[in-house]
TrEMBL record:
This is VWFD domain-containing protein. Residues 1147-1159 have a biased composition (Polar residues). The keyword Hydrolase does not apply. The chain crosses the membrane at residues 1210-1233. Residues 428-611 form the VWFD domain. Pfam families: VWD, Vwde. Keywords: Disulfide bond, Membrane, Signal, Transmembrane, Transmembrane helix. PANTHER family: EGF-LIKE-DOMAIN, MULTIPLE 7, 8, VWFD DOMAIN-CONTAINING PROTEIN. InterPro entries: Dev_Signal_Modulators (IPR050969), Helical_Vwde (IPR058727), VWF_type-D (IPR001846). Residues 1-16 form the signal peptide. Residues 1123-1133 have a biased composition (Basic and acidic residues). It comes from Tegillarca granosa (Malaysian cockle). Residues 1123-1177 are annotated as: Disordered.
């Protein structure tokens, strides 16, 4: 063998060609070889070459050799301690020498020796086996092999205006697992921009990131400047994998690579990423501010070649993923204009501008500078003093498998400081109480004695409004009017509190974006928080009127209008609107009114939120989210949540609810059946009219008597002085004034003779006191010297609703009632059954709208307590109203929606069976009654549970009739012609039997259900592993299939992995017991599959939609292929190794796991079937054999044409060897002839 090798080597030498000696093809190029010349001195910002960390191994570069003599300077070769080769280089190709290299020191030419091996690989290439230099800042010296010894002087050229610019490029096409599809990934490319004014020079560019040297590049002329760039892939090799760094380049010139370099000039730092232009912002409390970001580098999309239909889309977002602060205090939020909401579903982020391959190829603009802006706002808790004033808003780029260097990039933080320069909103309230006494935010008091609906409060910038309805309230007293309804809009929510006799209603009228937060505080008080954080407190008083108070927040300052005034800190201009003074005092009986100002805010019916009229119905129906100009988004707090998890609404406040308060949410309303939801406005108004008529008939009038002014003074002073909470508030809370409230109390009692109004006057004062305790941080931090409690805590502890109506004791802010009294203020007689109005509300619960989950009962005197109970007496009813069996009684806990509405939850009822074997239950009738104490129930309300699709109430109350064209089977309406589920022989035939299934004898019986209802997948015949999607006009995509049973006689899913991805008509094939394989590598997803054997040739599969786009389930024909000409088919029967059933059970079902794998085969399906319909198919009813026999064809050649595959392989190898030997002999002969 050795002789043959020598012969071959001799032949190549004789012909002038050289073989590469062994080992010469595994070397590494010498790093930074152009910086290792003996005359090269690093510039000031350039690091020295350092081989202390050099990996041991073979190094070389064609045309370069290690210096063979000591440099004259220790600063040569781009390092501090140069290393030269002290031995002699090998002469012959293939020779290797071993010698030493010397480290030049400050006092010696060889302060340290290093063993070096040198192998000669060609006339111009020697490779060196180098080891670490073992000395810091020492490096091997290399220079051009053809250097004649002359040193080229440094050129005069000095670069000016050196800058770094970013560009984008795409990698060469990378094969994917999809045949014919290649992928090009984007890369950011940094260019060092300078002006080469002199030809014939070599330009060197050094790159730095974060002050750290990265790489040095050399270009021998201007045409090769592309070689000077810094690419994203080179950064990855240095461990820089994500944006947010500063890039610099320096430029210098040389006359040749061994020459002395000229002076280096560096660029300024270029920030690669997204600059935060506003790293620190000051946000005034109650206002907004803008933050600005600028991107400096392109964001590229992956590019696919070879497939139509691929879109180079790569959505990524700059998102807010963390805001410091707590949910119960001030916070910073993102504010989004409605126009932006339509462009992006990500409320807490903005989409980054994409750069696409095709756009760049078609001359797209290469300007990557893109500015992004957000408006940030403040979520305010309404406390007088901010608990937190400094926030940190953190930003990042969303995760995604697109442009790698962008993925998860975290931007610099934005520091937000909140300043509070507001003042006029503190300790302010607007209120209307009793008959009514009005007070603006800025403290102006006036009387209002008019009926109608008015704008009480309206925000000038936000979709927030509070409407107030007033009506006459005291019989026999001229001009005495009271507030009876408050209708509140926030965003797209409307909440109604109406005690007006003509339309009593307390609930959401419209549910939208959840901007309103509603809390029920006891039986008579509701607190509604507006989107600004302003709090509306509504108290239900005795009779038909309400008291209302609004406490503002900083966002209301100078931004409101209406009967509450403008909240600008000045009371002298409360009645001046648009420069016109409407403050003229008008006499209205014994009252002094401001009628001109009041009339200014009177609303016509088209603008009413409530009650519902023809004129204002469109206003409510058309209320949508896209009518709102400002959306506030509370972004994820300290979680790895995606931006889509943000909560967005018109709400710009934070509220931590008290445990005493029960929240009313829109979700509760949305869960109600359609017949109960207030969206059906006409039906709601009809129900309200019925309720109002009933309440008017049963209304108990307040005790009216003649009270002198002196008697009124005595009653009012006693009421105030006996209230411990008021006395404590007056002594400890600044700004609590009682003089005007006592005077109003005296006036009201003297004029009307109604002593109950003394309680309303006291409530107006105690409300202000409690609000101060909740919001005034001074009161919260000032402790009482006796017990160590703060003033605020004491106020909350001693203040109870209505002083417990003198029927209980106030303990820790809660009334503990005595005797037979109950309720939050001990004003209800619990031993008195609440009144149920049987003629109000629905008499029918229609299951055609959905399950009868709850029934609402209307009346009076419902107490919100844990003892509130619904009693349901259930009676089953047959045809013609016949009662079936005895009644059953069940009790469930009731939920008080308001004092005149209770919800009874019907889902807790136990399902009754027919009590008689032959009894036929047509429907059920409920008799419902309510008890406040769980035992004393009032009168009953009857409700029938029916299905209006086929049952029709008749004139006789307890009788239902059947609609034509329906059956009523198993308490369900069935349309004529519909079949029993899973059984085709049972059908609804009203002409034969309206109450039982009719059996069709002429329909043959079928096997188990899956074998009956299965369907064909679309394009069933194009799902073979040999069917490449590239050959189809439309790629199959099983993401959108309907979950269910699928199959086809003679077709099964393959049991083994597919050899390529572009199979089964999709981009990713799905097969049993495998995985979904991605384009490049790896498994993507598993899909569980159920299999049922229906016959020897039919298995059906329970398939679910795939989670991978353009993946398709594979089905192979199990029928033997027809042999082609000149071949003979020898069928070979094999049994599947997968257990598809129990051999003792013909209807067996097993579960498998299938996976989509983009791995295709290359065989074409041989079948004569052309059925590609996606319809249920009736299969053959043969006895089922669970052993699946798959006929496959093993083709063999005719005996005349040769042996089988194994023998042919051996012969092929022998022939190939002979050919090689003959060729070698011919080559030798030719070479000798040439010689």
């Amino acid at each position: 063998m050795f002789r043959y090798l020598c012969l071959i080597l001799a032949i190549y030498r004789c012909t002038g060609q050289q073989l590469i000696p062994p080992g010469c093809d595994g070397y590494t190029e010498i790093p930074e070889v152009h910086r290792r010349g003996k005359n090269y001195v690093p510039s000031a910002d350039e690091p020295q070459v350092n081989d202390y960390y050099l990996d041991e191994g073979w190094y070389g570069k064609d045309g370069y050799d290690m210096l063979s003599e000591a440099p004259t300077s220790t600063t040569a070769c781009g390092t501090m301690l140069p290393i030269y080769f002290k031995g002699t280089l090998p002469e012959n190709i293939g020779d290797t020498v071993r010698d030493t290299a010397c480290v030049v020191g400050w006092f010696s030419d060889c302060m340290h020796e290093i063993d070096v091996e040198v192998k000669r690989c060609s006339d111009t290439l020697n490779i060196y086996y180098l080891r670490s230099s073992s000395i810091v800042y020492s490096a091997y010296c290399f220079g051009r092999s053809d250097n004649d010894g002359d040193v080229a002087p440094a050129p005069d050229y000095v670069a000016n205006s050196v800058n770094v610019e970013a560009d984008i490029d795409w990698d060469p096409p990378l094969p994917t697992r999809l045949p014919g599809i290649t992928l090009q990934k984007p890369q950011i490319v940094f260019k060092c921009i300078f002006h080469p004014v002199q030809d014939g020079l070599i330009y060197q560019v050094n790159w730095f990131v974060g002050g750290k040297f990265i790489i040095s590049k050399v270009a021998v002329n201007k045409e090769n400047f592309d070689q000077l760039t810094l690419r994203e892939e080179q950064l990855r090799l240095k461990g820089i994998t994500i944006l947010g760094f500063v890039v610099k380049c320096s430029v210098k010139a040389l006359r040749d690579l061994n020459g002395i370099p000229g002076n280096a000039v560096s660029s300024t730092g270029f920030f690669a990423g997204i600059k935060v232009k506003t790293p620190k912002v000051v946000l005034q409390r109650g206002e907004d501010t803008t933050v600005s970001l600028i991107s400096t580098v392109p964001y590229g999309c992956n590019h696919f070649n070879g497939r139509r239909g691929f879109v180079d889309s790569c959505p990524a977002f700059i998102e807010t993923y963390y805001t410091e602060g707590t949910s119960c205090s001030s916070n910073v939020v993102i504010k989004d204009k409605q126009g932006r909401r339509k462009r992006s579903a990500h409320r807490c982020g903005v989409q980054i501008k994409e750069t696409k391959f095709n756009d760049m190829q078609n001359g797209g603009k290469r300007n990557w500078t893109q500015e992004y802006k957000w408006t940030i706002s403040q979520v305010d808790d309404g406390d007088y003093t901010l608990k937190e004033t400094h926030f940190k808003v953190k930003l990042r780029v969303s995760q995604g498998d697109y442009h790698a260097i962008w993925n998860g990039y975290e931007l610099d933080d934005i520091q937000v400081q909140v300043e509070d320069k507001t003042s006029s909103w503190r300790m302010k309230e607007c209120k209307a109480y009793c008959d009514p006494h009005m007070k603006t935010f800025d403290g102006t008091r006036y009387e209002m004695q008019k009926s109608g609906i008015y704008t009480f409060y309206k925000h000038k910038k936000l979709p927030i409004e509070v409407q107030l309805e007033t009506e006459k309230c005291v019989a026999g007293v001229t001009n005495a009017h009271c507030p009876c309804g408050v209708y509140i809009r926030g965003g797209t929510d409307i909440y109604v509190v109406s005690m007006c006799p003509k339309h009593r209603f307390i609930n959401y009228l419209h549910c939208g974006d959840g901007s309103l937060q509603v809390y029920r505080d006891g039986d008579r008080k509701y607190r509604i928080f507006l989107p600004t954080g302003a709090m509306v407190t509504i108290t239900l008083t005795y009779g038909t009127h309400v008291n209302v108070v609004i406490n503002p927040t900083p966002r209301d300052e100078n931004n409101v209008e209406g009967l509450c005034g403008d909240l600008n800190g000045r009371s002298d201009d409360d009645f001046i609107v648009n420069g016109i003074d409407y403050g003229e005092i008008t006499r209205c009986g014994r009252f002094k009114c401001r009628n001109s100002f009041i009339d200014l805010y009177r609303l016509n019916p088209q603008k009413w939120f409530f009650p519902i009229r023809t004129e204002n119905k469109n206003l409510i129906d058309n209320m949508r989210m896209d009518t709102i100009s400002d959306i506030v988004c509370l972004c994820p707090v300290n979680v790895e949540s995606r931006v889509g998890k943000s909560e967005c609404s018109s709400k710009a406040f934070s509220k931590c609810s008290s445990t005493k308060q029960k929240q009313h949410t829109c979700s509760e309303i949305k869960e109600r059946k359609r017949r109960d939801v207030v969206d059906d406005l006409e039906k709601l108004q009809f129900r309200l009219n019925r309720l109002s008529e009933t309440l008017t008939r049963s209304k108990r009038s307040l005790a009216v008597q003649t009270i002198t002014e002196e008697q009124a003074r005595t009653i009012c002073h006693a009421k105030f002085n006996n209230a411990g909470s008021f006395e404590y508030c007056q002594s400890n809370v600044p700004g609590i004034q009682n003089t005007q409230e006592i005077e109003n109390c005296i006036f009201d009692l003297n004029v009307t003779g109604i002593t109950k109004w003394a309680e309303d006057a006291l409530d107006a004062v105690t409300h202000q006191c409690v609000h101060e305790a909740e919001k005034n941080t001074t009161l919260q931090n000032t402790t009482n010297t006796e017990g160590g409690q703060s003033i605020a805590d004491i106020i909350k502890e001693i203040t109870c609703p209505n002083e417990c109506s003198d029927n209980g004791h106030c303990i820790n802010g809660t009334c503990h009632c005595e005797g037979d009294f109950g309720g939050s203020d001990c004003s209800f007689e619990i031993k008195k059954a609440p009144v149920v109005h049987t003629d109000v509300g629905d008499d029918i619960c229609d299951t055609s709208d959905g399950p009868c989950d709850s029934i609402h009962i209307y009346g009076e005197g419902f107490i919100d307590s844990e003892n509130l109970t619904c009693k349901i007496i259930i009676q089953q009813v047959g045809l013609n109203g016949t009662k079936i069996g005895a009644t059953s009684i069940e009790k469930v806990t009731g939920e008080a929606i308001s004092p005149f509405e209770v919800k009874c939850q019907m889902t807790r009822l136990r399902r009754r069976r027919e009590t008689q074997k032959e009894a036929f239950v047509f429907f059920e009738r409920y008799r419902l009654s309510i008890a406040n104490d769980g035992s004393l129930f009032g009168i009953e309300k009857e409700v029938s549970v029916i299905d209006s699709r086929c049952q029709v109430p008749s004139d006789v109350k307890i009788v239902l009739t059947m609609k034509d064209g329906y059956c009523f089977i198993d308490r369900t309406c069935v349309k004529s012609g519909d079949h029993m589920e899973g059984e085709r022989r049972e059908v609804c035939s009203p002409d034969d039997d309206k109450f039982h299934w009719t059996r069709l004898e002429d329909v043959p019986p079928l096997e188990t259900e899956p074998c009956v209802i299965y369907k064909h997948l679309p394009h069933m015949l194009n799902r073979s592993s040999t069917t490449l999607s590239s050959a189809l006009e439309e790629i199959l995509n099983d993401v959108d299939i309907i979950e269910g049973w699928y199959g086809m006689d003679g077709y099964n899913m393959p049991l083994t992995a597919l050899p390529q991805s572009d199979a089964c008509g999709g981009m990713s094939g799905i097969w049993l017991q495998a995985c979904v394989t991605g384009w490049l590598e790896g498994c993507v997803a598993d899909i569980p599959v159920e299999i049922k054997s229906c016959s020897p040739s039919l298995n059906v599969y329970y398939l679910k939609p795939s989670e991978i786009m353009y993946s398709a389930y594979c089905f192979e024909s199990t029928i033997a292929s027809k042999p082609t000409e000149k071949t003979t088919a020898e069928p070979k029967t094999t049994e599947s190794t997968t257990d598809l059933g129990d051999e003792h059970n013909d209807s067996s079902t097993v579960k498998q796991t299938v996976n989509t794998t983009p791995e295709p085969k290359t065989i074409e399906s041989a079948t004569d079937s052309d059925d590609e319909q996606n319809e249920a198919t009736v299969v053959s009813r043969h006895p089922i054999d669970t052993t699946i026999e798959t006929n496959t064809v093993e083709f063999t050649k005719d005996s005349d044409d040769g042996d089988h595959y194994n023998n042919g392989t051996v012969i092929g190898l022998i022939v190939a060897a002979v050919v090689v030997v003959v060729g070698l002999i011919v080559l030798i002969v030719l070479l000798f002839v040439r010689k």
